[in-house]
Amino acid sequence: EVAGTWSYYSSGNWQSGGVAVACPFPPSSPTSLPSAEPPPSVSPLPWTCDLDGTGTQTDCGTAAVCGDASFVGGYLQLTPNTGSKNGFIQLPPLLMSKNFDIRLEYYFSSASGADGVGITYRPCGTVAPATCDSAPGSWEQVGWQEGDLSWGLSEYAGTSYMAHDGMVANTAWSHASYASQWNSLHLRFDGSTLVGSIGGNNIQTAHVASTFSASGDWCVMVGARTGDYSNEHRIRSLSITGSFEPALPPPSIPPTSPPP
Predict the structure, then answer these.
(1) pTM for this structure?
(2) Please, which residues have CB within 8 angstroms of residue 197's CB and are 6 or more apart in sequence?
(3) Which residue, 69, 106, 188, 255, is most buried by CB atoms nearer than 10 A?
(4) What pLDDT digit, counting tens, does each position of 99-129 carry?
């Protein structure tokens, strides 16, 4: 007889299945090895969502609406015009280390309100749509984990913040020019440079280290908050394209044949 071992994929790990024995006489009916379970995969691109609450959007069912966010009148309201609110949308995992392009339409109600909005690409502790991560304390000032790629716009201070490589840089932006109207936000990354723009106007640019790398549990989140001062924050028409890097499938198990 000839003996060997086989393995199978289960619960995120390869498991040892025991000893496979080839006998001189094959059994009357062939016995197949257990099939390998594929690992959790990241979502394909492009990802698009109208965020109009009608249910006609492409992939909104795979995103999670979190905190104080809710669908209102054809858009996703991240916060009402009320103090101390925090709402966000969390997308499913997207692995896109080489480049990405995030676009959405954004509205905030007043230049004299607060606090602001933020877009972040970072490791996610949970997977949408089952549960939501804990909301960052500040969306607009992007004080998040080291290595995140993030862009935040403070409406109270008129300051744009960009996080990369564990650092946060800031610059002024003319927030009063964009209040009380819908604006097109665009955050793009080409593998070395992160650029944030509004309505085609470049607001901030950051150069990202060549060592930047994401993994399969990273996701995009868009959120807003209010504090002692408030604004209504709305978003709609969210889309993402980029160099999608799918998760590798588990190794295949070679079939066994009875001996001659």
Answers:
(1) 0.77
(2) 185, 186, 203
(3) 69
(4) 899 999 999 999 999 999 999 998 888 888 8
